[in-house]
Write a structure and sequence with these properties.
Distance between the termini: 15 Å
Radius of gyration: 26 Å
Number of domains: 3
Number of helices: 12
Order of helices and strands: HEEHEHEEHEEEHEEHEEEEEHEHHHHH
Largest sheet: 4 strands, antiparallel
Amino acid sequence: MSLLHTILWFLIAIGILVVVHEFGHYLAARWAGVKVLRFSVGFGKPLLSRRFGRDQTEWTLSALPLGGYVKMLDEREGEVPAADAHRSFNRASVWRRIGIVLAGPAANFLLAIVFYWALLLNGLPALKPIIGEPPAGTPAAQAGLVAGDEIRRVNGTDTPSFQDLRLTLLRVGVASEAITLELTDGRRVRLDAQPMQTENLEQDNLRPLGIVRYDPVIAPVIGQVLADGAAARAGMQTGDRLLAANGETVDTWQGWVQVVRQHPAQALRIEFERQGQRSELTVVPDAVDEAGERVGKIGAGPQVDDSVLAMLMTEVRYGPLDALWHGAIRTWDMSVFTLEMMGRMVLGQVSWKNLSGPLTIADYAGQSATLGWISFVSFLALVSVSLGVLNLLPIPLLDGGHLMYYVAEVLTGRPVSERVMEMGARIGMVLLLMLMSFALFNDLQRLISG
């Protein structure tokens, strides 16, 4: 995956999320009768600028594309013509100001709901919540779980896919020692475990519980070759049966995955069979950062029997109204989970290493776009939720900080003083710089360790 590809899809993702967020503010301001002077995607020097509408609002694309803003008429920021004074933001009622500020994060949550609705209406392919053999001594093994068990609920919450199972167990397991699982065969199982560790949310945090993904043995036959992958460059083809790597026999696809992962950017001499003829080639796996670890990938998938796929895979699909309802539930669940993890970071229960910055987001944008539109839209929905939650934090300079001032105004009956807001802006700037520094440090650590 090229750097240009990553940057392009990152800019597309950020552009969509920022435009929707700021358009929420823009629409709410128009509905509240406040004049909008500028709608900017990005910060800094405008690259493109046009004026439209009755108010001649300036629509700009600026040089630094990591955000955006809506500038409204405000008597605190300069002289306002007497004819327009009544349309100033500062003269709007406190409830209208609250509505304008809330509209940005609300637009992000609404966008996530729309994305999840479209995905669930189309049908989301997913792994069934089937587990493999629990490692000996783990709570799952002690509770009598075995390979092939399918978990349908965790503490009363449905888990239609393994991804849902993982998310629900993370939410429940970090804070609680009591976990009740309901299986498709009617059994109810209680896991007694210490609160789960979340040093790195990208890693396999379920293994200490004994919850591992079911992984049937798959023959080492290539079923798919990505056009821009290392396998294609080396000349591998669909139907090739892989036999040995660097002279050592490998019998299963899972074994090949491990061999490839352990050799990023290192040449592998592959023996294979094609149409009954034994042959040999050399492939150099691409080096990819995955959960802070540098691993090899060649861009090839296995040939899997349809009966095995039917056993492992499911499709989460709903009708139009049910998809909308479940889309709203997913958005709510992800919002709560994001807020919980942020709170636990502050309390020291979750490592700050889980905080990601623009470099990691850009990498995920590029990877998800490569995997197809379903993966990219899922990524956008998740980041949109995160953006909505982040903007509601009570930090001055963010939407949540402005809401904090307006709530104080509602409670006291008078606006917060300019002096207090100025001090808040300084504190907010320091907090945001600290968050950005943590996130960028984590990004760089992932790159260096990779």
